[in-house]
Amino acid sequence: MLGVLSSSGQLISPSQLEMFVDEIQDMPRIQGFHVVNGVSKSKSLEIGMFKKHWKFHRDLPPTPVYAYGTSEHTATVPGPTIEAIHGIDTYVTWQNHLPSKHILPWDPTIPTAIPFTKKGIPTVVHLHGGIHEPESDGNTNSWFTAGFEEKGPTWTKKMYHYTNMQQPGNLWYHDHALGLTRVNLLAGLIGSYIIRHHDVEAPLGLPNCDEFDRPLIVFDRIFLKDGSIYMNSTGNNPNIHPQWRPEYFGDTIIVNGKAWPRMTSKSDFAILANNAPYPYPSGDPVNDANDMSSASQTRYIAMYEYTSAIDEPTHLYINGKSYDESVTETPMAGTSEVWNVINLTEDNHPLHIHLGLFMVMDQTELVKVEEFKSCMMRFNDAVKCQISKHTHGKRLEVPAHEKGWKNVYKMIPGYVTKILVKFSYIHSNASYTFDPTAEPGYVYHCHILDHEDNVMMRPLKLVK
């Protein structure tokens, strides 16, 4: 059940891997559209998840991984880059071809997708940053095993529908199965997804051929001497959670599937900063503050960490609730809301909201934080605990490079981060072209994968 860890047992020091000996690779590109008589049309893709061996460095043996691709032979880590066109539908049937036993250890004592037969590796794909129907969002309980043999309680369909109606930009897709996100991503299930828009990109005058437009995916790993990926098999509270730990810190940096690769550039210029208006050239400045008076509701979102008798984290909750408790965040479709995110833990937490994009307004330090935290642990009610008395600390301005619409932002410990969340298209203020109130809804969570898995995540259900 807990998977297999290499018997060699010896970690390789990153200093033993010479830097810049492997040329960076470009991942395969798959067009999510057809061109018929010069006109872009919708397209259906089939992309699978396969177990194969992958060579991360010249001096490392090939290692078992899970990889996305159109076949086992063409599957890569990271997966192929899907290129979509704004306003043109892309349909993807994600297919699970993984074996019955995981290559990495995992922990069944945290909330986890476990098939009834105890066979197969649950997976489900989430397009991070995507704005699309709930049925195609990759809900953490919409998992499925190989051949769709078993399915999670919120599974609805095989083919996902991405409308690509949102602002253009770089997204990424990854596994999102309950309790297994960290290990499935560690095994290799990540890839890039780009939405292009000629009318937005053309005025920039940038080179747009593959030679000069190269998506890069950066991640970290730890390796054993036999080349296999290392994942701890013992938890920080082994009597409570045999395997789960609150963080994973890799010591080797991977770019496009290679450890510390070199990149040969044929260009004599690079973009180091961007302060252009959006859409360019006639849109709003990137650092324009948004008017919060349009918000239909203000919410308080509190982050908690719980510890054992040895003062080690056991689990993390949002608003003091587990993931499977009834939904409490029910925004109305087409509206905006102000969320005051209160970080009562000692860690930074990158908050990710599915569907809704948000703008960070400010971050305010809590005063008498232990007094406030004690009240919150008892009542879990920011108003009852008189939060207004505790938000008189240092106020942090949002850095210039962080201004603009986000789907992830770092929540600082001991601070209240005020964000304006928008549940409509940001570039047009138009309503969504799909029904965002459908089941199974969406989620929001900390994007530290170990926290998300145990289980710093809550359901998000839009209403009409």
Automatic annotation (TrEMBL):
Essential cofactor(s): Cu cation
Keywords linked to the UniProt accession: Copper, Endoplasmic reticulum, Glycoprotein, Membrane, Metal-binding, Oxidoreductase, Signal
Ranges of residues in domain Plastocyanin-like: 122-197, 304-460
InterPro entries: Cu-oxidase-like_N (IPR011707), Cu-oxidase_C (IPR011706), Cupredoxin (IPR008972), LPR1/LPR2 (IPR052152)
Pfam family, one: Cu-oxidase_2
Gene Ontology process terms (BP): cellular response to phosphate starvation
CDD domains (UniProt xref): CuRO_1_BOD_CotA_like, CuRO_3_CotA_like
Annotated GO CC locations: endoplasmic reticulum membrane
Keyword Cell division: no
GO molecular function, one term: copper ion binding
Localization of this protein: Endoplasmic reticulum membrane
Membrane topology according to the record: Peripheral membrane protein
Location (main, coarse): endoplasmic reticulum
Family: Belongs to the multicopper oxidase family.
Protein name per its UniProtKB record: Uncharacterized protein
